[in-house]
Amino acid sequence: MVQPLSDLIAQGRGLVPADLVLRGGQVLDLVTGEMVPGDVAICGETIVGIGSAYEGREVLDVSGLTLVPGFIDTHLHIESSLVTPLEFDRCVCPRGVTTAICDPHEIANVIGIEGIDYFLQAATRTVMDIRVNLSSCVPSTGMETAGARIEAEALVALKDHPKVIGLAEMMNYPGVLMQDPGVLAKLEAFRGGHIDGHAPLLSGRDLNAYIAAGIRTEHEATSAAEAREKLQKGMRVLIREGSVSKDMVALSPLLSERTSPYMCLCTDDRNPLDIAEQGHLDHMIRWMIGQGTPVLAAYRAASLSAAEAFGLKDRGQIAPGKRADIVALEDLAACRARLVLAGGRLASAGAFAAREDVAPVGRGSVRAPKVTAASFRATSNAAETHVIGILPGKILTEHLIEAVPPEGGEKRADPRRDLAKVAVVERHGKNGNIAVGFVRGFGLQRGAIASTVCHDHHNIVAVGVSEADMALAATRLSEIEGGFVVAEGGRVLAELALPVAGLMSLEPFETVEARLKALRAAARSLGVVLDEPFLQLAFIALPVIPALKITDRGLVDVEAFEIIG
C-alpha cells in the first residue's frame, strides 16, 4: 500500500509517531562505510528517518545490533530450490534475502506462459519482493525438445506487469552473434530496458558484439580474467554460488571497494539442502568476508550495487525514502540475521502463514514413452566415443574422446573406468525421442539415478551402469509426476516427487530437505562421488554451456553449436 506523502513527511519530521521504530542499533551506511547511530523510523513500507530519536506506534528493540539493507539475489531460478515460490519465500527470507530476481524459464520450458503467470501471481503474495525477468530462451536452442515455445510477442504482453524488470538471460549467445531473427525480435522488444546476459567464456570481438546488443549483466563468468574483461566492457558481473555452479572462490578476489559498485551476488540454482546446511546469500557474505573481502564491498554487492544494476532505485540502502528492507545482525562478519523486515513487514511465522496460496500448475506434465532396458542400448561398430567429462563445481563440461570397444555391436558402461551411460528421454509427449551417450565423473559403480530436472527442456535424464535400473528409474519418474529417483538391482532406493511441472514439490522445504538427504545417501551408496549429483545431472543436458552436452536429439558439441551425428 502506497502511503500518502503527508504521512511520510510528518513521520520523518517527527511531528507524529512513526508506524514502526527500530531503536538502539546502528546503521551500516553503504556509501561511506560509516556507522550511523540512532533510530530507524518507518512509515508503512518506507523508511522515513535515520540518525535521530523517534517515537513510534510500535517499537522494536535492536540494541547492540547492526542494521544492513536487505539482500538482493540478482539471478536465480526458484524452481531449482525444488519448492514453490511461497515455500522459497519462507525458506530464504528469514536469512535476510528480501528481494529475489527470478527467471522462471524452467517452468516456462515445460508449460509456457502459464508457468510465468504462476510466478507473477505468487510474486504478489510473498513476504519478500519477488521480481521477474521474462524468459528469453524457451527453448534454449533448436537442438532439444521442450514442452513449450515462447516468442517475442507473448513476452511483450507481460512487459508492463509491475513485478517484471526486463528480459531474462539471453542464453542463445550464438543466436545473438548470428543475428537469428527470433532472438533479435526479443532483443529489439526490450531494447533500452534491462536484458540479462549468459555468455560463458565469450571474449574479444564476439563479446563486444554481444554487449552491443544491449545486454547488461553476466553471471556465467568462471574466472577472474573472464570477469575482469566483462567488467571492463561495461557489464555488471554477478558472482554466483549455487549448488553446482560455484564461482565464488574464483571471483571473490576481484571484489573490492573499487569494483563493488559494479558487482553483485546471485545463486542461480540452489537447493534446500545446501540452504539449510550452509545458507543462501548470507553464506556468500560470510564466506567472502572470512577470506578477506572488505566488509563494505561484500554488503554493497549484496544490496546497493544489486539495486542499482537492476534499476530498483527504491532499495539497497537504509535511508529516508527507501523501502524498509532491513536485516539486523549481531556481527557483520558472521552475517546471521536476528531480525528481518521486508517492505516494513517482519519476516515472521505469522506473516508467512497469512499469505494467500497459489494453485499449483503443471500437474501431469510428465508424458514420457514407456521404456525398457533395451531403450538404453548404445549401438555402434566404432570404438572411438564422445564422452561428457564432469567438472565438479562447474556446469562447464569437458569433451573427451575415449575408446569404448563395442561388444556384439553394443557399447557398455564400464564402472572400472568411471564410464557410465547417460540418456535423455523426451517427456512432453511430442516425439518420444531417446538419446544415449557416455559420461565420466559420477563415480557410479552400480544402479542408476534419474531426474526430470533437466535444464532447460526438463526431459528425463538418467545416468547409470545398469540399463534395467535406468529404465526402472525413468518409469518411476512418470508414476510420481516427476522428481528424483535412485534405483539399484530392480529396487527404488530413494525418491522425491516434484509434481509441479516435474520441478517443484508441494511439501514444506523441511520435508524436501530430509528427502534430499536420503537421495544423496542412496546415490553415494552406488559409488557417486559428486556433492550435488542431481543438479549436476541436470546440467549435462543444457546445450548452451560448453563443451559437450546431450539432449533428446543426441550429443551436442556446444562450441560448434551442432548435434554430433
TrEMBL record:
Family per record: Belongs to the metallo-dependent hydrolases superfamily. Adenine deaminase family.
Lineage of source species: Bacteria, Pseudomonadati, Pseudomonadota, Alphaproteobacteria, Rhodobacterales
EC number of this enzyme: 3.5.4.2
Keyword Manganese carried by entry: yes
SUPFAM superfamilies with a match to the protein in the record: Composite domain of metallo-dependent hydrolases, Metallo-dependent hydrolases
TM ranges: none
InterPro entries linked: Adenine_deam, Adenine_deam_C, Amidohydro-rel, Metal-dep_hydrolase_composite, Metal_Hydrolase
UniProtKB keywords: Hydrolase, Manganese
The Adenine deaminase C-terminal domain, residue ranges: 395-562
Catalytic activity: adenine + H2O + H(+) = hypoxanthine + NH4(+)
Domain Amidohydrolase-related: 66-330
Record CDD domains: AdeC (cd01295)
HAMAP family named among the record's database cross-references: Adenine_deamin
Protein name per the record: Adenine deaminase
Pfam family, one: Amidohydro_1
UniProt GO MF annotations: adenine deaminase activity
Cofactor: Mn(2+)
Keyword Coiled coil set for record: no
